[in-house]
Amino acid sequence: MTDSKLNIDRVALEQLLNKRFFYAPSFGIYENVAGLFDFGPTGNALQQNLISLWRQHFVIEEDMLEVDCSIMTPSQVLKTSGHVDKFTDWMCKDTKTGEIFRADHLVEGVLESRIEGDVLARKMADMSVSDGNDKTVATDAASSSKGSNAKKNKKKGGPIVATKLDDSVVEEYRNILAQIDNFDGHGLAGLITKYDIRNPDTGNEVTHPVEFNLMFESNIGPTGHIKGYLRPETAQGQFVNFARLLDFNNQKMPFASAMIGRSFRNEISPRSGLLRVREFTMAEIEHYVDPLRKQHPRFSEAADIKVPLLPGSVQLEGKSQPIVMTIGEAVEKKIIDNQTLGYFLGRIYTYLIIIGIKPELLRFRQHLQNEMAHYACDCWDAEIKTSYGWIECVGCADRSAYDLTVHSNFTGEKLCVRENLSEPRVYEKLVCEPNSRVFGPKLKKAAKPVQEHLASLSADELTSVKNALAKDGKAVVKLSGTTADGEYEITPDMVSIENKTITEHVREYIPNVIEPSFGIGRILYSLIEHSFNVRADDEQRAVLSFKPVVAPFKCLVLPLSGHPSFEKPLLDVARRLRSNGVPARIDDAASASIGRRYARNDELGTPFAITVDFQTADDNTVTLRERDTTKQIRGSVEEIVTLVKDLVSGNTTWDDVLASHQLVNTAAASS
Amino acid sequence: MTDSKLNIDRVALEQLLNKRFFYAPSFGIYENVAGLFDFGPTGNALQQNLISLWRQHFVIEEDMLEVDCSIMTPSQVLKTSGHVDKFTDWMCKDTKTGEIFRADHLVEGVLESRIEGDVLARKMADMSVSDGNDKTVATDAASSSKGSNAKKNKKKGGPIVATKLDDSVVEEYRNILAQIDNFDGHGLAGLITKYDIRNPDTGNEVTHPVEFNLMFESNIGPTGHIKGYLRPETAQGQFVNFARLLDFNNQKMPFASAMIGRSFRNEISPRSGLLRVREFTMAEIEHYVDPLRKQHPRFSEAADIKVPLLPGSVQLEGKSQPIVMTIGEAVEKKIIDNQTLGYFLGRIYTYLIIIGIKPELLRFRQHLQNEMAHYACDCWDAEIKTSYGWIECVGCADRSAYDLTVHSNFTGEKLCVRENLSEPRVYEKLVCEPNSRVFGPKLKKAAKPVQEHLASLSADELTSVKNALAKDGKAVVKLSGTTADGEYEITPDMVSIENKTITEHVREYIPNVIEPSFGIGRILYSLIEHSFNVRADDEQRAVLSFKPVVAPFKCLVLPLSGHPSFEKPLLDVARRLRSNGVPARIDDAASASIGRRYARNDELGTPFAITVDFQTADDNTVTLRERDTTKQIRGSVEEIVTLVKDLVSGNTTWDDVLASHQLVNTAAASS
């Protein structure tokens, strides 16, 4: 269990994130609603930096067509996409109090509590500790140490009761937990009955799970008749614009659209901080590709990237150790379905490493057949290891032609590509042609629907009609779902059904879509966990070691003390940094020692600090401190500002700076 | 009328914006819903650039605390802020068909049609044209020339009927139209009755106007019991976080928070393209300031900026010609209420000029007393002149302490600043102190509420109590809205009411808020109108002359023709630009001449174009063309890429480039 979770002091980290306003529950001074979070100045800047890098890495470098579509979506669009019917979770209710649970979370919580109770019982037996009472309620030490949030974070599976279970039962529970995501409503109902799962707080039985749609609903306009949903993903806005985008791209294929924006999911039970929320920022790419040519023109650039893969076949063997191999090898061995999918896995990997995700805490897990949507032909998740376990942060699916097909079918608008063939395609085809002198007059208003029906028949079906006409002298056509439903008799004089030679100069196809989809909040939280350290010499001093390129604030500017002579040079340095586009924070709180001010900015993850001291007045020099090494150098204001700009933009590194500058000898107090 | 509107060919512009996918109605392949727009690659990039510049100009240079709060807002927050009760428009219905109108738009449309009918009638009389028929229905030439949108854009006031009106009636109508925004429901009802305003399409009467709340409503969570609204502005999320933000700022005042994000207004009748929509991106600053010290530390930087002002006093004189003066002078003369408000007007002006708004098409209009919220003490709109008239694009209001006060009162959370006074404040105050031996035992459970009531009395009220006790030997306290409502008798033994000397070391105050609020979509649309030109030598060739810093795509890369040898250098140039962060588009459509490709990228507003030609293979040089001058120079790939990077970042200008390079002699066809 533990080796699938990152071992960090999450309580300390959460306190830091709250204190330094990375994020906090929205509308916290009101009775706040679960699953909504506000990003403070620190979290917001971090998020913006992740988005900027994403835009540079994907949109600009790959020349994607970035769009910005409406969040409010008329219901029919999401009916067509399948979300109105299928975007649901299973919920059940306490039969007496009416309290609502997400069914899989309830089963999970109760079974986990039982396993923990078993572990506790075995431990107590081992220690030969017995107070003559077989069952003991454990004190909820872990949650009470969380401070003020403890009361709100109810233990989801109820109090842990020390009750020994049979080994086989424990094994059974663990098996269920490992595949809890795969149970549908029926399966969950079975588990609830079989294992007598109840509301842990009341002991009451719960109802059979029913489906709950996860979309927020609203009405558009004053009549109340136009139903809308808040989009649950950015993808549909991109799909419905496909024809415009293809046109913008001068009809050239393949190409990609992209969108960064807010999406909404009305989760039954939000939990795990930023990991399961009701409103979140996502970044999605829809790469449109010819289904017959899934090669990628830049594949060679990704082919040599080594990535840790956990293919379906390995998971089915019950293993969780990823295989490290190059993208090129994985595509060649058909572990990854095609070059385009492989190329994007490589690009996703590079992006995550650039922002500071630790490579050893990152893996690509392939979806098993039963996890995938029926239309998907391959899907991989970039999973990042956190203290909550392996978290899906980026999905990368080949969605085939599903989305464009359903929108095109419903609206009647062509969402397809027409390709001029250099060699025309010539083939034989059985074709039904009406004899207009007889066909129309006989069928009257039904003529057009009958003709369309005949044109839509397969070769086999059309052969049956032809045979019937030859044998019986007639054939019956049955229409349904048209404006002229009913049965119509066709006679041989009305149609000719013959093989014809067809010559096509244009190939028309609906592109397949490869969709890398990024949960920005999840990536942000995982990155914070990976960046969280304590000073080697003082466990109380936490540091967020963000890379300069993602750090929320790039440079701290501070005076050695509250001496009034420091104010002018301080403002001058800050102004110069800001007008160079370097976000700089001043920390001149005279009440705090310089050591304490360094420490609190270490908690913001600020990589550099410029200090104005008494020497500044003499020679206009300042010191520059780097967060992780705590080493300092000295230089003129001009030089140091330029240096910081170069450090932040990646034009130079701190190692280079150290190699070319003399260290300042700092007293312990100011390090 | 016409001189208040920018004279451009809006039909041509709209066709260009649609063709080049700046934006388009959302979900256009479905039956689309009014007031929702998708930004295509061009519009999105333009919007992103406006946002980046905004962030640099305000957030970074002014060290504002940018946050990112939830869109979904629990209803109580917006009940407290006043939006649930007051954020409404007036709507009325056709009494027979039920068709819904925004009441002010209906009145406006009908009166405008009548005035146009009058103009037409007078014109016909002048021309002595008469077909013996007094009333003539004009052909709707203007709207049919709009092409495919004509059917959807119904003439809002009905067909124009040539009917002469009395001069005094025309005058009356014009007066109403000039102040249509100032009528409430009662006033609009009066107009509808007095002028017999009907549904122009059916001739039916309309109902009295009723209030319609403009917020989109939804339910949060699975119970359906938690009502939420989509935020109508970003401000409230900032206000409720005030205490956290002050803390983050180390308790230092003044400071500002800022947010860029989506907001929603369920408009009754969206219209005028991006100008009145249901979902939009806004950027808001909340600057928190001591009500006693509204000076601004950087005021001197804004004091010399000359701005066109239209103060309330000038408007009341019926004038519309702005006064041009410096911010410093306007604040000194109290035309602008205070330094901080003035400083922000200056910064807003600078921002709008930087992005390319034409200074002669920009003015600051002060709200009249009856336009302002009751709590606001001064408010100015930055209005930009467009073909729709003067459009409010930025509001800048002094909201006093209203918002923080109401949220604080409702939640009981202190949203205030505690300032340590250097000199303690000493004053006399009448104070009521309970005698604890008698007070508690006599009043029992009511003791605390009665004591709180007494403490809340004003000096005059407390004096009355003191007098009653002295005269009658008793006083009656009446509680309401407490846990112990009722009347309670107080006797002299229970309290002592005496003057005391109070010494305060801390001053506690609720800050005032200065709020610059930017409608990004409106600014974007206005900027497009200001950038729209046609080539002097060819009116059919439209150009969007965006400054390089806001242009959606910075550089076009194209081959002289479809010759295969151009492909490699083409990709090389594009790759180099993109990895330098310069968004570059390739246009290698072999079917289009180079002139046509230049032209279509002029329509995207792309300022620079690099062309690969036959000479490139020989000496690795390319040409660089600038959009507005259409002049070209030649240089090595490396030099030109660096030059473009510098041009885009503002490190150099095209004039500088022309001064130091020889012009390429271009054939007419390729200009």
Write a brief caption for the model.
2 copies of one chain form a homodimer. With 671 residues, chain A is of the alpha+beta class.
Key features?
ATP-binding (chains A, B); 24 helices; 671 residues; 36% helix; Herpes Virus-1; 4 domains; transferase activity (chains A, B); protein biosynthesis (chains A, B); nine-stranded mixed sheet; BirA Bifunctional Protein, domain 2; ligase (chains A, B); five-stranded mixed sheet; globular; glycine--tRNA ligase (chains A, B); alpha+beta; homodimer; Signal recognition particle alu RNA binding heterodimer, srp9/1
Q: Which structural class should the secondary elements of chain A be placed in?
A: alpha+beta
Multimeric organization: homodimer
Give the CATH H-level superfamily of the largest domain in chain A: Bira Bifunctional Protein, Domain 2
The CATH topology of the largest domain in chain A corresponds to: BirA Bifunctional Protein, domain 2
Gross morphology of chain A is globular
Keywords (chains A, B): Aminoacyl-tRNA synthetase, ATP-binding, Cytoplasm, Ligase, Nucleotide-binding, Protein biosynthesis, Transferase
Catalytic activity (chains A, B): 2 ATP + H(+) = P(1),P(4)-bis(5'-adenosyl) tetraphosphate + diphosphate
Subunit structure (chains A, B): Homodimer.
Enzyme class (chains A, B): ligase
